[in-house]
Specification:
The chain contains 17 helices and 12 strands. It has about 550 residues and is an alpha/beta fold. Strands 1-2-3-5-7-8-9-10 form an 8-stranded parallel β-barrel.
Length: about 550
């Protein structure tokens, strides 16, 4: 493939990850040919506008100078290793002082929103790309996204999505599509034509009827934009976020433009590598649960599919925080090697990794592959809910977002699903699925015990990750049992207090067992029983609050 690029997406507002994937040498050895960094747009000074937005001696300048120096070091290191360099930018993000200076020209007077239709906004970005190209001529291009603007790491900047997204869901409009056309045409002219740099425009969003996953929306926008050799659209392989039980993105290998495919190696909804999580078998060959078992191997021969955009580390928020990044490494190795030579079978690359990075002999490698595929099925059964998911369009989000990052949601997040399960007499089916997940994890545990690792330390730490999966999903199974009994009691107007008390006791024991792995070698940080709140906000009630509610009843 033409492009095989990698990004370490550090958690916004937190210290950067310590990871091998910041080392360009690692990327080259895996088969990547490009490295992606973030925030280069935030060190543009805009001096050409004739104003000093980062005056010497100011806190803003004290922040900017070391940030720019770090970018210098990153670019030099990547280029020295032979990698192409790209920078991920969110649009629009600009210095607070600049926005305040031009507020009347570029912002909505009522909301303060930076406006795409303002000529001043476009002129400011012309100046920005001119400055970035002049100062860092070695940068090969940019990865642009709209929809979210994270400002946690850029305290002297402000911003908003270049495209209007309402705070609540509204159906897509022609005006929204036309905004995309106007923005991409501007970026094409400035980045691809004027500065002769690559532009990877991410179709990122989380709505199935919008740019990212709707073929009609995608074609409406992209058919109005003239193709260019430096313009590539970056698209997730899934028709939603990085979930299971969603279809392969229908916009892949469609339209008139080149594309790269986004793949997450540290899946934020599936443990982030805290427990066994090998997904590239499904990404490349097709996931077992999909009616149309389409994988990237079925798309790669199309001329439009020109590369892979991998996130070796990062995605989502908070933890689990890893002390051993074996599982993301396995995923990154396989997808990079496959992108380097798509004629190779995924299983062949997997075996190569087992030999070169895990020190496994042939029979042990075969058992290890069995373990990985068992764990993938265990995640499917434990994290998702087939009885609910099969009622949805394949592109809808399965089982809401009840379990994500290092947080466990409860009925505050699952009420709609439990209502459906109760009304259709499917609570038993859901609980049987969660029990099956635990049984699969226990089978993973038994399979692991049959494998001999020549690297004793690696074996011990992988055993910890197996125990993490076994014990975490015992918590999940016990929690769902408490929720099912409690919810059914609410709906009936009477509780089976004996069964509920027994379920809560099992839940407490599962948590006790799970927390005990915290002292085991290589253990990632643990899940919490509250839900996800963004940095600086209070965590919403999660599974723990639901269980405590029913504990009071018993």
């Amino acid at each position: 493939m033409k492009f095989s690029i990698d990004l370490v997406h550090h958690n916004p507002g937190e210290p950067p990850f310590e990871t091998r994937f910041l080392d360009p040498g690692t990327l080259v050895s895996f088969g990547f040919n490009g490295q992606v960094f973030k925030h280069i747009n935030c060190v543009a000074t805009f001096d050409a506008l004739g104003h000093d937005f980062f005056p010497k001696g100011s806190p803003a300048r004290a922040w900017l100078d070391p940030f720019a120096a770090r970018i210098d070091r990153e670019i030099r290191a990547a280029k020295s290793a032979g990698l192409k360099v790209f920078h991920h930018i969110d649009l629009f993000v600009l210095p607070k002082a600049l926005v305040e200076h031009y507020r009347d020209d570029m912002c909505d007077p009522a909301t303060g929103r930076i406006l795409l239709e303002s000529e001043r906004t476009l002129d400011v970005h012309r100046v920005m790309f001119e400055e970035l190209t002049r100062r860092w001529p070695a940068v090969d291009g940019y990865v642009a996204r709209v929809g979210e603007t994270y400002l946690f790491d850029t305290p002297f900047h402000t911003g908003n999505s270049a495209i209007r997204y309402g705070p609540e869901y509204v159906p897509p409009t022609t005006a929204e599509k036309d905004e995309f056309v106007a923005l991409i045409e501007f970026l094409r002219k400035e980045i691809c034509v004027r500065h002769k740099r690559l532009l990877f425009f991410r179709t990122w969003d989380t709505r199935t009827d919008r740019f990212h996953a709707s073929l009609d929306f995608y074609r409406y926008v992209t058919d109005r934009i003239e193709p260019h050799e430096n313009l590539v659209f970056s698209i997730k392989h899934t028709g939603h976020d990085f979930f299971r039980r969603v279809k392969v993105n229908e916009v892949l290998a469609q339209g008139n433009h080149a594309q790269i495919v986004e793949v997450q190696c540290q899946r934020e909804y599936e443990g982030k590598g805290a427990y066994p999580s090998y997904v590239m078998h499904g990404v490349i060959n097709g996931f077992e649960e999909n009616a149309k078992r389409i994988g990237l191997k079925d798309l790669v021969s199309d001329w439009r599919i020109q590369g892979i955009f991998a996130w070796s580390r990062g995605g989502g928020w908070f933890g689990p925080y890893l002390t051993n990044e074996f599982w993301p490494t396995l995923n990154a190795y396989v997808i990079a090697a496959w992108a380097h030579d798509p004629s190779r079978a995924e299983g062949e690359i997997f075996s190569e990794f087992c030999r070169t990075h895990a020190g496994l002999k042939k029979d042990d490698a075969a058992r290890f592959r069995e373990l990985c595929l068992l764990a993938a099925r265990a995640v499917l059964k434990g994290r998702y809910c087939e009885a609910w998911d099969k009622t949805l369009n394949e592109s809808d989000a399965p089982v809401a977002l009840w379990m994500r990052d290092d947080r466990l949601g409860g009925l505050h997040q699952l009420e709609k699903i439990f209502s459906y399960l109760y009304e259709n007499d499917l609570l038993g089916n859901a609980l049987a699925e969660k029990r099956e997940a635990v049984e699969l994890w226990e089978q993973v545990e038994r399979t692991f015990e049959e494998i001999t690792f020549s690297d004793r330390k690696l074996g011990e730490e992988l055993y910890t990750s197996v125990q993490y999966g076994v014990r975490l999903f015992r918590v999940v199974e016990a929690g769902w049992r408490v929720m099912a009994l409690g919810y059914a009691g609410e709906r009936r107007g009477r509780y089976d207090t004996g069964a509920l008390r027994e379920a809560i006791t099992g839940y407490d024991r599962a948590w006790e067992s799970y927390r005990a792995i915290d002292t085991m070698p290589g253990c990632a940080s643990l899940y919490q029983d509250v839900y996800l709140g963004l940095p600086g906000t209070e965590s919403p009630p999660g599974l723990g609050a639901t269980v405590e509610k029913y504990r009071r009843i018993t």
